Amino acid sequence: MAQPRVLILRAPGTNCDGEAVHAFERAGGLVERWHVNQLLAAPAKLAGFQILCLPGGFSYGDDIAAGRILANQIRQRLAEQLQEFKAQGKLILGICNGFQVLLKSGVLLPSDAKGAAPATLAWNDSGRFEDRWVPLATSGMRSVFFAGIDRMYLPVAHAEGRFVPRDARAFAQLEAAGQLVLRYGSSPLSGSASLQPATAYPDNPNGSLGDVAGVCDETGRVCGLMPHPERNIEPTHHPQWTRRERGALGDGLRVFQNAVSYFG
Amino acid sequence: MMLWEVDIYPASGEPDRAGQAVVAAAGQRGFAPGELRVAAAHGYLVQGALESGQIERIARDLLVDSVVERSLIGAAGEARLSDPHAAALDASAKWQLVYVLPKPGVMDPVAQSTLSAIADLQLTADAVRTFRKYWVAGKGVSRLETLCSQVLANDAIEQVVVGPLPFDHLELGTPYQFQLVTIPLRSLNDDQLVGLSREGQLYLNLAEMRTIQAHFRELGRDPSDIELETLAQTWSEHCSHKTLAGRIAYRGPEGTRTFGNMLKETIFAATQSIRQSLGANDWCVSVFADNAGIVRFDDENNVAFKVETHNHPSALEPYGGANTGIGGVIRDTLGTGLGAKPVCNTDVFCFAPPETPPAAVPPGALHPRRVIQGVVAGVRDYGNRMGIPTVNGAIYFDPRYVGNPLVYCGSVGIIPRDKSFKKPEPNDYIVALGGHTGRDGIHGATFSSGELTHESESLSGGAVQIGNAITEKMLLDVILQARDRGLYHAITDCGAGGFSSAVGEMGEHIGAEVWLDRAPVKYEGLSYTEIWISEAQERMVLSVGADQWPDFAQLAASEGVSATIIGQFVSGGRLQLKYDGQLVGELSMEFLHGGRPPVVREAVYEVPPSRELAYSGLAGRDLGAALKQILSSLDVASKHWVIRQYDHEVQGGSVVKPLVGAHNDGPSDAAVLRPVLSSQRAIVVGCGMNPRYGEFDTYHMAASAIDEAVRNCIAVGADPTRIAILDNFCWGNTDRPQTLGSLVRAALACHDVAVTLQTPFISGKDSLNNEFRYVDREGKQQVISIPPSLLISALGQIDDASQAVTMDFKKPGSAIYLVGATRDELGGSQLSHIWELSGGRVPQVDAALAKRTFAAVHSAIAAGFVQACHDLSEGGLAVALAEMAFAGALGATVDLATVPNELAAGPGRDVVLLFSESNTRFLCEVAPHHCERFERLLSGLPHARVGQVTAEPALVVNSGRTLVFTADTNELKAAWQAPLDWN
Q: Would the CA dihedral through B656, B657, B659, B662 be positive or negative?
């Protein structure tokens, strides 16, 4: 099938859905944008899509904690459908708030036997929302979305993006499984294998342990990242485009192209 | 029924940021280092028939993140919740417990969301309230009251409980017992009329009260409370702008002039004359008519822009004031035409300096640092949640803003051309959409028309609100879909005056019948009048046809947005208010909108006597040091601490960001963005303001502000024939003829400059009576009036976004051109400020020359000859040059002797060339092979090649063969970044 169907799922407070639609369309996907109520009313319709994207924003205001309420809805009411979606070899991408939702709903990383989540996204070390561009390096070959990408320059815009594993063991397991796929830092594989960040603020914008900026599940087909690839698509997106060769497409486009061409 | 308390602490090993923030803030309010230890928690009070296992599940699955948090759960008031051991605090210290909760009725968005999220768990709670909890120890506890009022809580919206919580249930309001209230107005004498206006917070003057009295005498009855309130809201300064749109007898340097409607005869008149001369090429669509001004954008879309102020609420509760300020202006855009989609926001603030000693802050005013932090957080949290990029702004500092800070919020929206006008139809339903009505925000419109006093905090608490951005985002999502499906005839925002203004305005030419008991309320107990005038946030009023209603209602329901029919537009020109079928008020639209007695005011302006600036004694001063000092003055210093807290890229259209250059940290002149992602056409947003110039002559202050706003847009590539501007006048008490005179003088400048530049004003707003009254320590009445503060906001356009330029130097070896003439204009300048000089000439504008200069610079940019462009404003040539150099991580060499100027020879020449703030000037970087063609485009205009870009990070400033100074651009950048590099 040449053109996969992409579902951009929005909830009250989602606000990066428009540019996510644009990015997937630019990459060649057939995109629909649905309110979560629409999916909750007919969960079976998820099966009609190949790619599910949870875009950025402040779902339900990020009240209680970022992504928590939508994550709760997904866990309570859509868990089965998402399991099925994953099992069929389809793709799920969470960007920023979408990453927070995927992580906190357990869709991305399963909880242990006692119900404890292996990691969370906590408040930035700076204690506030920050919008800034950061260098990123991919790590390993696990994620479908980052195939063929070594480095990217993308903006982050969040208050709660500090990746914190439950403990050193949980971190080591994820690292060993190659699931810590995106790191803050400028050189490929610069992300430290240890918990301590090797990249200093502001390039590690939130104090993420292990410099982790993005994570995938054990299959590599479910992925979440804090930076915004959809904000570096067009030639005029780069913050220094007036200093560079004109006309170059943005680093982020490749992420969406990878997703679409996975079904090519 | 149980009231559970869930306390949430940082897990062991996690930092206690909230506690650290309290210690830091206390340090700024006079607490000595080491005097305080603070441990903080936050939590939820959950009321309902819930068993302990259920509340534990709610905590585990919903409220607590066990990776980084730990919780303590109990029945409210249970001893272990106030036991420091249970909270795992240091046992050796003596801890005092303090709770801070939103006052009942204050918006608590997190509590609302929690309530519905609990329902997602298939559990039921009746009510939720959030709180913050502080444990305080150390010597500073002896000043607990100060700590509570200055740091921990704001009395305007929050309540403090010291020790365990003393209540076991949450108040949910009590049912309202209907009782019609009639005001015996007809029998009152003048003193009693004035007393009634004051005590009822009506803010109506005697003439207005008498007019109302006469009207009801004629009707042969007394008014009900709701009728009087409706008139007070509609006739308020905030809603009707009666002063500036009123009659003014002006006496100034231009001679005497009598205005029937001052704004109409100055600013609107300028736009009318521009539109006439444009003829068929008129690109204005709707000006001074709707909630925002609208101009043409491309074949499919128009673009709308509105800027509002929210000064008085921000003075009392900075976070909530700014929050609802930005929320309000977004609704203006959304309520323009049939609804514009907001694509970016702007914000401009005026504050007292953050380093003001606590003792110098007058009683009743909040410390400027607290105001700044609160305002920035308020704009951040609302704008970011709405998903609207905040792309442009400015901050000005002056001690006179101490009791009355200024918060200007703007919103640009894009609207299909065929959706740019609205018209309610007779028999349409009046539909309330969005948030429910509460007791919050009663008397905001009338309150903001009065002055602030040290008692305002206690008097007007109800006018201070917290917004709920997500409610407004949901509203936006519904409105844009309903607009595109054609599901209503008209829309307006519910802002100042609440339903009373929205329905009154929309039904002005028809008539309306309102069923107040149908309006959805947040809690029981609201009277019919409270429902009518509440300014509860996040509400819009729509005019929906009976045939449109079913689809509209279904759409709103599918998005979980409340839509309720609260009345009907009925022909006959009468406003009828009903509660449970009973008539509680009836006014003719004619009297409501046309009955107000004209306000006639005197206005006088005398240009303050000019004094030459004394240059003697300035010779030999270190000009490099002066540059560094100006770069680190608050007005000029980098605002990155603010900018980075705003999402300035959401919606994906960003082209020129607020911070640009080699390290993304140079100060952009204006923002550029593409509102339609599939198109290269871009909008440009800039602003101009200079309160310091007002001391010299408000005419030149206004002219300079326009020039600055326009040249900021030009500098990034905007087409000068497509720039629209907006005015926002924030002034002191215009009952004083001198104060009003200074405003009229500024409005005359707006007219003159706009007409010459052919740059139309499309919208505006004023905020008068920005004064702070208090009693000083000797018991004397004091008044602090703000300086005249005119903000000009500009909305420009670029055909092709890839033609935009940024201000950072690009390449060593490029030529540096200075365009525009430098004059001896150091009056009100940054140099005068840091050197504490008085006198001098204030910058003036040669508008005809400016028009030609803007056109020439634009054609050079459009032709691709300009690699970098920066306007010269605060700090003049020296600051612009330094900023371009360090933004590009490069250096520059310039020769002052080549600078085009109109100066007499004499002492201080280099000082003037470097620091004069003459208008209409740009620095342009031009590649050597483009110099000739660049110069040809500039021929006939003052311009000169003044230097070149260098690779070394140094500024080398010569005057002929003499070295004036050199400076390390890394050091200059550090000086520029340091002052507002807050944590």
A: negative
Q: Give residue B33's pLDDT.
A: 87
For residue B794, is it left (φ>0), alpha (ψ between -120 and 50) or beta? beta
Rounded to an integer, the average pLDDT of A193-206 is 89
Q: Could you tell me the two tokens for B617?
A: 């004694």
A94: closest CA of chain B, how far (Å): 16
Chain A hits for B62, Cβ within 8 Å:
64, 68-69, 72
Residue B651: list chain A partners with CB under 8 A.
15-16, 18-19
Residue numbers of B between 796 and 815 with CB closer than 8 Å to A: 801-802, 804-806, 808, 810
Nearest residue of chain A to residue B983 (CA atoms): A126
pLDDT higher than threshold 50 for residue A191: no
In angstroms, how far apart are the furthest CA atoms of chain B?
89
Q: What is the pLDDT of residue A189?
A: 55
CB within 8 Å: B649 and A228? yes
The strand pairing partners of B3, in sequence order, are B47
Q: In this complex, do A243 and B810 lie within 8 Å of one another by their Cβ atoms?
A: yes
B582 touches chain A (CB under 8 A): no
Nearest CA in chain B to A118: B67
User: What gap in Å lies between CA B291 and CA B604, rounded to an integer?
Assistant: 31
Q: Does B651 touch chain A (CB under 8 A)?
A: yes
**Euclidean distance between CA atoms B340 and B292, whole angstroms:** 9
Q: What's the confidence (pLDDT) of residue B453?
A: 58
Phi and psi angles of residue A104, each rounded to the nearest 5 degrees, phi first: -80, -15
Query: Are the beta carbons of B114 and A63 separated by less than 8 Å?
Result: yes
Threshold 0.90, pTM exceeds: yes
CA distance B139 to B143: 8
Question: Is residue B303 within 8 Å of residue B413, measured between CB atoms?
Answer: yes
Q: What is the percent of chain A with per-residue pLDDT over 90, rounded to a whole number?
A: 89
B264-289 confidence digits (pLDDT tens): 999 999 999 999 999 999 999 999 99
Q: Which of residues 352-411 of B touch A (CB under 8 A)?
A: 380, 384-387
pLDDT given at position B460: 44
How many C-beta neighbours within 10 Å does residue B606 have?
12
Query: Whole-angstrom Cα distance, residue B309 to residue B668?
Result: 24
Contact status, residue B965 vs residue B623, Cβ threshold 8 Å = yes
Whether residue A165 and residue B67 make contact (CB cut-off 8 A), yes or no, is yes
Mutate to test the interface with B, among A15, A169, A231 (most CBs of B within 10 A): A15
Strand B539-544 and strand B429-434: the pairing is: antiparallel
Is B645 in contact with A131 (Cβ distance < 8 A)? Answer: yes
- Give just the sign of the alpha carbon dihedral B651, B656, B659, B663: positive
Give the Cα separation of B484 and B275 in Å (integer). 30
Cis previous bond, A202, omega within 30: yes
Q: A71: helix, coil or strand?
A: helix
Q: How far is CA B376 from the centre of its chain?
A: 10
Phi first, then psi: give them for residue B532, nearest 5 degrees. Answer: -70, -40
The stretches in chain B having pLDDT less than 50 are 456-461
The helix/strand count (H/E) of chain A reads as 7, 11
Catalytic residue among B310, B312, B367, B640: B310
Phi, psi for residue B533 in degrees, rounded to 5: -110, -5
Phi, psi of B968, rounded to the nearest 5 degrees: -80, 120
Residues 629-648, chain B, touching A (beta carbon < 8 A): 643-648
Mutation for B interface: A26, A34, A63, most B CBs within 10 A: A63
The strands making up B158-162's β-sheet, listed across from edge to edge, are B69-75, B2-10, B37-48, B127-137, B96-102, B158-162
Count of positions (residues) in chain A: 264
Rounded distance, CA B787 to CA B689, Å? 12
Contact B920, B848 (CB under 8 A): no
